[in-house]
Amino acid sequence: FKSFLRHPDTARDFIDIHLPAPLRKLCDLTTLKLEPNSFIDEDLRQYYSDLLWSVKTQEGVGYIYVVIEHQSKPEELMAFRMMRYSIAAMQNHLDAGYKELPLVIPMLFYHGCRSPYPYSLCWLDEFAEPAIARKIYSSAFPLVDITVVPDDEIMQHRKMALLELIQKHIRQRDLLGLVDQIVSLLVTGNTNDRQLKAL
User: Fold this and answer.
1) What pairing do the DSSP bridges indicate for beta strands 103-110 and 50-57?
2) Which residues form the Transposase (putative) YhgA-like domain (predicted)?
3) pLDDT, tens digit, for every residue of 76-104?
4) Same domain, 159 and 72
5) What is the DSSP string of 28-57?
6) Cα–Cα nearest to 66, from 78, 77, 57
């Protein structure tokens, strides 16, 4: 498999035939280039074979990477492994000096005894709670931007209040204006000696 798909013309045909049309339209297949990196764990390398091809976009900006993996036995967590490959390819792209994440399209070529392929290739389906996973990983992650939280609200944050208040104002030269609030928080007993020493 790997010896075939290392050949640019063969890989170009594979991608042209099997990549879904909306994604294929993004790719300039004349720029297809085999990338040297392999993202398989060392202990698994003797059993699996992956290839990473890069193409420029039709607009001429950025890159799209296609990770091609082949498999003869279905694997229940294959989608997660392919996601790991994708993130590794993104990191490699950033390490090369690029400033934006590339699109990485993982593709699986399957030729096993069980037919059709029995498992989902959406990694979000592999969670115990897929619906919750979709909410977490398809939207912005929770942000605690303490710089925009009013001090009065911070004062109600129980055991987090003292840390948040000091972190919010840590760049101020004069913290004397916070003395009353700090004393008030200390009186509530929501901070222990170890935490005070850390501050």
Assistant:
1) unpaired
2) 1-196
3) 999 998 898 888 888 888 988 999 999 99
4) no
5) EEEEEEEE----S-GGGTTT--EEEEEEEE
6) 57
Straight-line distance from the first to the last Cα atom of the chain, in angstroms, rounded to the nearest whole number: 59
From 137, 167, 187, the end of a domain falls on: 137
Helix axes 179-187, 161-169, angle to 10 degrees: 160
- Show the domain range for 153: 146-198
Give 126-138 pLDDT, tens digit per residue.
999 999 999 999 9
Average pLDDT of 109-124? Answer: 96
Neighbouring residues of 85: CB distance < 8 A, sequence distance ≥ 6:
39, 40, 50, 52, 67, 69, 104, 106
Number of domains composing the chain: 2
Strand locations in 41-161, DSSP E? 50-57, 63-71, 103-110
Of 115, 137, 159, the last residue of a domain is 137
